[in-house]
Amino acid sequence: MKFSPVLWIYSWIQWALDRLLSPTPPPPNARLSRPRIAVIGAGLTGVAAASHCVGHGFDVTLFEAGDENSIGGIWSRVNNTSGLQIHSIMYRFHPSVHWSKGYPDRQQIVSQITQLWRRYGLQERTKFNTRVTSVTQDGQGRWIINNPSNGRFDGVIPAIGSCGDPKMPHMENQEVFQGEIYHSSRLDGKTAQGKKALIIGGGASAVEALEFVVHTGAAKTSVLARSEKWIIPRNAIIDSLLAFNIFGQETMFSWIPEKLLKIFFYRDLEDLAPQHEGLFTETPMVNSDIFHQIRQHKAEWLRGDIVRFIPNGIIFNHRARGVPKGGPGRQDEVKGDMVIMATGFTRPSLSFLPKECFQSPYEPPNWYLQTFPPEHTSICANNCTRKFPHWHLHAPASRVPSRSSDSAFPVLDEEVDRHDEMDKSKGTNRSVRLFHLL
């Protein structure tokens, strides 16, 4: 492997972060004396949360519905060719993570999660093949996971993520299509060599599927997208600069990066940029190759709606820029002999939590910090709910205005005040100890 001074420096920075910030793993078979925590899900978030808890002396049990091969969550179930769209410096889920390259693939990501799981002795604390169906409280307010035989806990961290099973919607006349149909997460062992590939969807999964079919030799590729999404270059400096928008939403200055992207990145393909949606209204896609493929006529990006399948392709309603989904357009046949459904994943359900967690108007994601249900602040639902702008998420910590005037983002005023009071009491409440820990 060729020596890279940048990666060498990056490696030393990661080593320093590990030494300075990683909590000390407990010795084998240690009896941890701090409150008992149940972590639900052995994906990236669950393993990271459990390792932090154990490293700070909390007695943890990790519940996972699958077997040991499920460690890593969604990363354990996607294609081997899958990898990070953003630079790994922005994907540090634990201080001890050591990336060997800027854009690691699925194998390295799962490897880092598994190493973290082992480093903090979570093997002896994980219950595999245990799907959580209920979380209830006993008379003393301790949490029971499924049944008392699993123990009783002082706090619960649901870490089930936002990606469940592959979403495969059935479309009109789909059964008459004479070619192959795959979900974008099920492409291992497949090839698009010499084929006309049709990719249904316009999100990150579609970009990843496009990379797959182009690099496996597809004769032609058409992406059939219902709307435009912002695409930003795969460049650590540019992506980091965009991430410095601490408000996490559109501001009066958002037009500046949007204009620069159109001039220097989109260039002649500006028609593919969103017309009415701002860069910070949702998560952009990160890819530097897609426009090159379009300019080389190896791929095309079509805006419109699927009408129906035909034996040798799809009837597609092309819409002009600015015409809403389902609006008028021009119908045309898009020929293909391979369809990839880049239609995402179902969202895992939090329905195992007590019903009080779902009472209007504070059902998820309208919990305090989108994490703590107002009725049960010893539950910390980590990375399970829809994301809101950063200024709302970090209001109490940063002391920016903690009351929202936007009815779409209700802030739990009583919970903000309660958190501030508990913060002043130096962590006497279990839920606050969890909050500061994570």
Automatic annotation (TrEMBL):
Coiled-coil annotated spans: none
Annotated Pfam families: FMO-like
Gene Ontology MF, one: NADP binding
UniProt cross-references to SUPFAM superfamilies, sorted A to Z: FAD/NAD(P)-binding domain, NAD(P)-binding Rossmann-fold domains
Keywords: FAD, Flavoprotein, Oxidoreductase, Signal
Keyword Nucleus applies: no
Presence of keyword Flavoprotein: yes
Superkingdom assignment: Eukaryota
Name the UniProt record assigns to this protein: FAD/NAD(P)-binding domain-containing protein
Species: Heterodermia speciosa
Source lineage: Eukaryota, Fungi, Dikarya, Ascomycota, Pezizomycotina
